[in-house]
Design a protein that fits this description.
The complex is a heterodimer. By secondary structure, chain A is α/β, with parallel strands linked by helices. In chain A, 53% of the residues lie in helices and 10% in strands. The chains are: A alpha/beta, B alpha/beta.
């Protein structure tokens, strides 16, 4: 049994509960033991690095230290922003001895350096392996047409993330194919969804997320697969507004890849928390996969 | 005992402003062996040189020291002067008190003391100088030109014009190179073939020029005047002497393959000439795809050839020839844009390169001069050109500017509009670099008269939507995002060194830079020479060059080569390494460190034991006197004439012996 430290971040304990639920269920099934980091703190997200560079590095480092103290060698962060901040903090501290000292002063402890930061996708593809996932699949996706949307932070910047392709990533697509779905080639896999402008400059999100929805629909998608709580929220929560503005119906369920994986592994929609989505996926999933 | 004369130069105020030249001369009089010392305003002037010759006679001097500028500037001047005074030219030493003293210091007192030390070193050395004699080597009066593009062609023509023989070795079946692929040339819009083919024919018809096409240089040994070169003549399977290029064979050949010359936009046969004006007009058989070679079927070409020129049994042949000089004209290759994800990783058929576009523009090209979308062959009306693809990109491409993309993109935009006035041309650029005669005017014309839309900014993404290419970029001048739905995208990909450039550089002992481009001997003053005497550079193998610059360097390189060949014998600098075979243990550590390949092993009979053993031997014409072997030699068997251990240690002793007394 593989044991990893789990850093849920704020989203998975609030707006993205279903990501948390589905991820935990899937891990249990695949033989991964998740141990939530005790007393974890905010990763700093965007507000920290527009406020203070030191703060934006020290916050993730605090979490890395806590995870290291658990005696584990890997920490997994499902939120793309958390994942990105943890990776960047680890690298910057490793490369900049002056910064390392400053962080050490602020935190009162030596900064973490050895623990590896991974995204759940990485764990599933690199540690579990698609072959095993495929073998464990109980419910094939029946050619479900899926547009995988990676967002901006999951695979970028490549020099820090060092996972998948920064322009045309494939990991979720490969997972979809392994599960028996149709991974659609499309060009907007890493376009910006508008991110946190959802609250301050909603028009920008209507525009950018609208483009993504439109492109996915044109590519023939029946649903969009995501790996980031903010991407999910923008594409799902703002979809009605976008439909109104563009005068075009999308009706595209926005699913976490852990949810689709959970379904394929034999779990029910109810178990996986699929009722928490705004655009209701149940009709599509009932029709295509005969799940309840 | 040597009788040394010291002459201290003022160099106007260059030296005298910082160094007390009179004091230097005065103190020099007290150095061991110095019989005469004086200062003078300009030692290099005629009166200055006369002064040296006069003083040699008057004071019976046998060694000369001139304290002035760098030896690279005037050593030759004063050597000649020393010789004219009746002394061995190597009985002269230069003390550099300008570049290494007056120019870099401002404290007059300290600088004067340093100048005194520098002069002291020179006097200590010159007293121990041996008389050296310049030796000569014969010259093979023939030039090897590697590469048969416009660069090699022009070099061959110029060598022949000077009355010397030239051999072009070209890897492809025909000479012509990249220029043969172009449609028109900027900024005059001359048809490329119209100005190139006469030169190709001239090369072919010249009695002084020999062509080895479909051939490669395999090994180079020897040295200036006497390069020994092995050339592999790949099996054409067609007898060059019998074939008259009638074309029956390739008309009848049943195998159709993508044509490399047409950038895979057109077809060729398995027996083919790459293009109609090929020189020599003799086909080759593509052994990989020929039905007869692979399956012993077909054999049509042999049956239909009226001259019995087809020879399936022909094999590669390696020939060896001698050359006096070598001109490297191997050109460039294009950067592979498929590393750029934002341009689709090379997946989109309608995202092409400048060379593809060139072939489409060409009326004898694969599309008959029509600009089409490679995906469906339909006419392309909206074309986006993207400059600097792989150029000026330190992270993923080359750090340098490829120099000609701005111009050829402008030319292609213009030709697009000439072919179809309804067509739209968009050009994304970082900067427009149009530094050349009539270049800026040309780019202006393309915008003003032909209406090409220039957008200053980068393209962030190309993707497909409904079978069309969507090009997203920014226009930094208006500060807006731009999306263009294009039929065709043309990438101005960087010009880069050929993948096997390093192999050739090692063969020729010439240096290359971090971008694998061959390095000239001096970027300003020896731009077509290399540090290996007798090897010259021309064209884009050195750095990206347009046709005018390529032709200019070709002419320059051939003049340099012919200059060498015009001598019956070549003098070689006697300041080179010398092996004392009595001491040499034959370990050949020297051979390992020699950057010029000047050391070979030689078998000798030991004087004492009367047994055979190996020792190191220096090839005088290859040795540059760098001294690397000297320091690597463990038993101390190698000495460098002009810089012997005795001389160097003499210098050190002169400085250290009485240092305490002086300061």
């Amino acid at each position: 049994m593989m044991k990893v430290a789990y850093y849920p971040g704020c989203s998975l304990h609030s707006t993205a509960r279903e990501y948390d639920i589905s991820f935990q269920l899937v891990c249990r099934k695949l033989g991964i033991e998740l141990q939530e980091i005790p007393h974890w703190v905010c990763c700093g997200s965007s507000p920290a690095h527009v406020t203070s560079h030191l703060l934006s590095i020290a916050l993730p480092c605090k979490n890395l230290i806590l995870a290291e103290e658990m005696g584990l060698d890997t920490v997994v962060a499902p939120c793309a922003a958390c994942f990105n901040r943890l990776k960047i903090a680890k690298q910057e501290v490793a490369e900049d001895s002056k910064l390392k000292k400053e962080v050490q002063e602020v935190l009162g402890k030596p900064s973490a350096g050895k623990i590896e930061v991974k995204h759940p996708l990485q764990v599933i593809i690199e540690d579990v392996g698609l072959k095993k996932v495929e073998e464990m699949t109980r419910r094939k996706l029946q050619g479900l047409r899926v547009a995988s949307y990676y967002g901006c932070l999951l695979v970028r910047p490549p020099s820090v993330i060092n996972f998948d392709d920064p322009e045309d990533p494939q990991s979720m697509d490969n997972l979809v194919s392994a599960l028996g779905g149709e991974a659609l080639p499309w060009a907007f896999k890493t376009e910006c969804c508008g991110a946190s402008f959802s609250l301050s400059e909603t028009d920008i999100v209507f525009e950018l997320s609208g483009e993504i929805l439109n492109e996915a629909l044109e590519a023939g998608a029946e649903c969009i697969l995501v790996a980031c709580p903010l991407c999910q929220s923008n594409l799902d929560l703002r979809q009605k507004g976008i439909e109104k503005r563009r005068g075009k119906k999308f009706n595209l369920p926005i699913l976490y890849f852990t949810e689709l994986l959970g379904l394929a592994l034999g779990m029910s929609m109810r178990q996986l928390g699929l009722s928490r989505h705004i655009v209701n996926p149940s009709k599509l999933l009932e029709r295509k996969l005969a799940v309840t | 005992m040597a009788r040394i004369g010291v002459f201290v130069c003022h160099c106007g105020t260059n030296i005298s402003a910082t160094v007390d030249v009179k004091k230097v001369a005065e103190i020099a009089k007290g150095f061991p062996g110095v019989k005469f010392a004086t200062d003078y305003r300009y030692m290099c002037s005629e009166p200055g040189q006369d002064l040296i010759q006069k003083m040699v006679k008057e004071h019976n001097l046998t060694r000369i020291v001139v304290a002035a500028c760098s030896p690279s500037l005037h050593e030759k001047t004063f050597r000649t002067c020393t010789q004219n005074a009746g002394l061995n030219p190597y009985f002269f030493e230069m003390a550099n008190i300008r570049e290494q003293c007056s120019w870099v210091h401002d404290d007059r007192e300290e600088a004067t003391l340093k100048a005194i030390d520098i002069v002291k070193l020179a006097t200590a050395k010159v007293g121990k100088n041996n008389p050296l004699q310049t030796t000569f080597i014969p010259v093979e009066k023939k030039v090897l030109i590697i590469g048969g593009g416009i660069s090699g062609i022009q070099a061959a023509i110029d060598v022949a014009f000077n009355g010397f023989k030239a051999v072009i070795v070209e890897r492809e079946p025909s000479i012509g190179g990249r220029m043969a692929m172009f449609d028109k040339t900027f900024p005059t819009l001359d048809c490329a073939a119209c100005i190139l083919t006469p030169k190709m024919v001239e090369v072919n018809q010249s009695d002084l020029i020999k062509l080895y096409t479909y051939s490669e240089v395999e090994e180079v040994s020897g040295y200036v005047g006497n390069f020994k070169v092995k050339i592999r003549r790949k099996a054409r399977l067609v007898d060059e002497n019998k074939c008259n290029g009638c074309g029956t064979c390739w008309q009848r050949c049943p195998v159709r393959l993508p044509s490399e010359f047409d950038m895979n936009l057109g077809k060729r046969k398995a027996i083919y000439v790459p293009f109609p004006q090929a020189v020599p007009n003799v086909p080759v058989i593509d052994q990989k795809h020929c039905l007869y070679i692979n399956k012993k079927k077909c054999g049509i070409c042999k049956k239909v050839c009226p001259f019995e020129a087809i020879d399936y049994e022909q094999e590669d042949e390696v020939i060896e020839e001698q050359f006096g000089a070598i001109i490297v004209a191997t050109g460039f290759t294009m950067f592979d844009h498929s590393i750029y994800g934002e341009y689709g990783y090379g997946k989109y058929k309608n995202v092409t390169t400048g060379l593809h576009f060139e072939r489409m523009l060409n009326s004898s090209g694969p599309t008959g001069g029509k600009i089409v979308r490679p995906s469906d062959g339909k006419e392309a009306k909206k074309v986006v050109f993207i400059q600097c693809v792989g150029s000026r990109d330190e992270a993923r491409g080359m750090p340098y500017c490829s120099r000609l993309c701005c111009m050829y993109t402008a030319k292609q935009a213009l030709l697009l509009k000439e072919h179809n006035p309804e067509a739209e041309a968009y050009v994304f650029y970082i900067d427009i670099r149009a530094a050349g005669k009539n270049y800026e005017e040309f780019v202006e014309r393309v915008q003003d008269e032909y209406g090409a839309t220039y957008l200053r900014g980068r393209v962030s993404k190309i993707f497909q939507r409904n079978g069309r290419l969507m090009v997203r970029g920014c226009d930094t001048l208006s500060g807006t995002q731009i999306e263009i739905d294009a039929d065709l995208v043309v990438l101005a990909t960087a010009l880069i060194a050929r993948p096997d450039a390093i192999k050739l550089a090692q063969m020729l002992h010439i240096p290359y830079d971090q971008n694998r481009l061959f390095t000239e001997a001096h970027p300003k003053l020896a731009p077509v020479e290399t540090v290996t005497t007798g090897v010259f550079l021309t064209g884009a193998c050195q750095s990206p060059k347009d046709i005018p610059d390529t032709v200019a360097t070709a002419s320059a390189a051939s003049v340099k080569a012919c200059g060498l060949l015009s001598h019956e014998k070549l003098p070689i600098d006697p300041q080179i390494a010398r092996v004392d075979v009595e001491i040499c243990s034959g370990c050949l550590a020297c051979k390992e460190v020699c950057p010029f390949g000047a050391i070979e092993k030689e078998e000798i009979v030991d004087r004492v034991t009367q047994q055979k053993r190996w020792v190191a031997k220096v090839a005088p014409s290859l040795c540059n006197g760098c001294g690397a072997c000297n320091t690597a030699c463990r038993p101390g068997a190698i000495d460098l004439d002009g810089f012997t251990e005795e001389q160097i240690f003499g210098q050190i002793e002169s400085l250290t012996a009485d240092k305490g007394n002086e300061r």
